[in-house]
Design brief:
It is a single chain. The protein has 376 residues and is of the alpha/beta class. The chain has 2 domains: 3-53 and 137-236 and 341-375, Alkaline Phosphatase, subunit A (3-Layer(aba) Sandwich); 58-127 and 238-332, no CATH class. 34% of the residues lie in helices and 19% in strands. The protein has 13 helices and 16 strands. It has helices spanning 15-19, 42-51, 55-58, 88-102, 115-118, 139-145, 159-172, 185-192, 197-220, 243-248, 274-286, 295-300, 366-375; strands at residues 3-10, 31-35, 64-66, 121-123, 150-152, 177-182, 223-229, 235-236, 239-241, 258-262, 266-271, 290-293, 313-317, 321-323, 335-336, 348-352. The strands form 5 sheets. The protein has a 6-stranded mixed β-sheet with strand order 2-16-7-1-6-5, with helices on both faces. Strands 10-11-13-12 form a 4-stranded antiparallel β-sheet. A two-stranded antiparallel sheet has the order 3-4. Helix 7 packs parallel to helix 9 and helix 8 runs antiparallel to helix 9. The chain is globular, with a radius of gyration of 21 Å. The chain binds zinc ion. Residues 12, 42, 186, 190, 337 line the site of zinc ion. GO terms for molecular function: hydrolase activity. Pfam families: Phosphodiest. InterPro entries: Alkaline_phosphatase_core_sf, Phosphodiest/P_Trfase.
Length: 376
């Protein structure tokens, strides 16, 4: 019997959003459930999905982390250039040039991290997650070790191209495991929010395209196990909060007293002295728009690092409140994720034409379903 395990990743297609679009793969998917996500953004969720491990186990808890050996130290000179060089387009070109110069094969973006702050950070996603040999064990390593023929999307390609590529691979009929990567719903949700007609339009398109791939697979294979899932959901943004201004107002010196990374829904701090630790902690306790994730909480979320690699202190904004401006963008946008994994909008989605076991409750459990399907 010829079998295909078809795994379709849709970025940010949270369980709450899915519930609003019940036509999605209706009559194909017989089982659907919410999955707990992990603390962080897509670059942390994807390793959790591919490895079946939590952030503190796979070590990709965030894109940027404080390092004395930053490859970006020289970029401080750019902060003295006219502000033209700080525009988004220029940063994009620069990101591409750096990616090439440093040989990074993973996703790399400078976002809005100020040039004079970049030199304090190193970067986790240096390797492509979708080819064997990532810094953590992935399902692709598993396929190689077990001689399972697989197909994986190229994350650099547009969705149309990845749909075409997976279809071609299915038509050849040699693949046992197919990984289809569809990331662009995320951008639409960020830009327009969860209730926009553009979201419905996109989900209807995804529905059509996935049905199409599934139908083709069923013609070629005796059994097709279809799993469609996401990494997290999306929260509609209600307001921005200028956390950077609050911290700057303390009069501490960035780099000498502390280092901070302002992700859009979370801030992380590294302290160089006790005074900075005390002043920043006190200030954060005064802010009603977010809360500190203490050690107990980080351990519960399996994102605790003894050496403070990803931060001595994590500050999480309340759902819907965006740090604005942040190091990931200067403008307030309609949707954001990366809030506490217990937030309803953070829940990821798993749907399948197969029965989803009771034990599958977190995005780190998706890997178990893959191995189970491939073992049969
Ligand atoms: Zn996103």
């Amino acid at each position: 019997m010829k079998k295909l395990a078809l795994y379709v990743f849709i970025d940010a297609f949270g369980y709450e959003i899915y519930k609003q679009h019940p036509y999605f793969l209706k009559d194909i998917a017989t089982d659907a459930k919410p999955l707990q996500s992990v603390l962080g953004f897509t670059n942390t969720c994807l390793p959790s999905i591919l490895s079946g491990k939590y952030p503190q186990e796979h070590g990709q808890a965030s894109l940027f982390y404080y390092s004395d050996h930053s490859p970006f130290k020289w970029m401080k000179v750019l902060s003295f250039l006219p502000s033209f060089f700080d525009r988004f387009r220029v940063r994009n070109i620069l990101s591409r040039a750096l990616k090439k110069a440093y040989g990074y094969t993973g996703y790399f973006q400078l976002y809005s991290i100020p040039f004079d702050k970049l030199g304090y950070f190193d970067f986790t996603e240096k390797r492509d997650y979708f080819v064997p040999g990532a810094p953590f064990d992935t399902i692709f390593d598993y396929c190689v070790q077990n001689s399972i023929p697989y197909h994986a999307s190229d994350w650099r390609e547009p969705e149309e191209r990845n749909l075409q590529a997976v279809t071609e691979s299915i038509e050849e009929g040699d693949t046992a495991f197919a990984w289809l990567y569809l990331p662009s719903l995320d951008g639409i949700l960020h830009k327009y929010g969860t209730q926009s007609p553009k979201v419905e339009e996109k989900i209807r398109w995804l529905d059509r395209e996935i049905r199409n791939v599934y139908d083709k697979a069923r013609k070629k294979y005796d059994d097709v196990a279809l799993y469609v899932f996401s990494d997290h959901g999306m929260e509609d943004v209600t307001e921005g909060y200028d956390l950077i201004a609050d911290i700057d107002a303390l009069g501490l010196e960035y780099g000498k007293d502390y280092i901070a990374m302002y992700d859009s829904s979370m801030a992380r701090f590294w302290f160089k002295n006790n005074k900075a630790r005390e002043m920043i902690t006190r200030k954060l306790h005064e802010i009603d728009n977010g809360s500190i994730l203490d050690e107990e909480e980080l351990r519960r979320l399996k994102t605790f690092f003894e050496d403070g690699k990803f931060g001595d202190l994590f500050f999480m904004m309340n759902p819907g409140i965006m740090i604005n401006p942040s190091y990931f963008g200067k403008d307030l946008i309609a949707g954001m994720h990366g809030y506490h994994p217990d937030t309803p909008s953070s829940k990821a989605l798993l749907i399948s034409n197969k029965k989803i076991g009771e034990e599958i409750t977190s995005i780190t459990d998706i890997r178990k379903t893959m191995e189970k399907e491939l073992a049969q």
